[in-house]
Amino acid sequence: DTELWKQVFQELIQEVKPRHKWTLTEDKDLLPNSLEPGWSQYQQWAFARFQCSLCSRSWASSQVQVVFHMHKTRGKPRGNVKMRVFAQRCQKCHQSPFEVPEFTKENISRILNNLVFRILKKCYREGFKSMEEIPTIREITLEGPHDSNNCEACLQGFCAQSG
């Protein structure tokens, strides 16, 4: 649900840049490492759950790729972030659609906190060199290899797990 992402992003960016106007929009065509001039990228692998819309099977993955492209308007207190979450599809269903993952609010906060750190660093030249990325919480221990055949990011060649 992009609304939750937008809401949490606004809360976090307002804490660090109270009078600046930033927008977060979803862009399903966003491609990793394909940046418009003046834009920066932040990419994170996160834990999330999926549910198949055909058979209702659910599964979890810690290799869900979330990509952000960010840009601050020069000399103005505003900026834009575009976001894409890569989907996965069910292993069991033939011709299953790519499903968008569900993240916990806690993990959304962690991912967006990391994004805001990155915005401070890249767009404002602020922040500390030693700022560590906060990992997302894995609610369960996952067994087995990453299922590259059913990972949208792998199939498009953007997944770290696809070698």
UniProtKB/TrEMBL annotation:
Topology term for the membrane: Single-pass membrane protein
One Pfam family in the UniProt entry: Zn_ribbon_3CxxC
GO cellular component terms, semicolon-separated: cytoplasm; membrane
3CxxC-type domain: residues covered: 45-157
UniProt keyword annotations, A-Z: Membrane, Metal-binding, Receptor, Transmembrane, Transmembrane helix, Zinc, Zinc-finger
Alphabetized InterPro entries for the sequence: R-trans_p (IPR026096), ZAR1/RTP1-5-like_Znf-3CxxC (IPR027377)
Keyword Iron belongs to the record: no
Cell compartments where the protein resides: Membrane
GO biological process entries: detection of chemical stimulus involved in sensory perception of bitter taste; protein insertion into membrane; protein targeting to membrane
Domain of life: Eukaryota
GO molecular function: olfactory receptor binding; zinc ion binding
Identification of the protein by name: Receptor transporter protein 3
Species annotation: Mustela putorius furo (European domestic ferret)
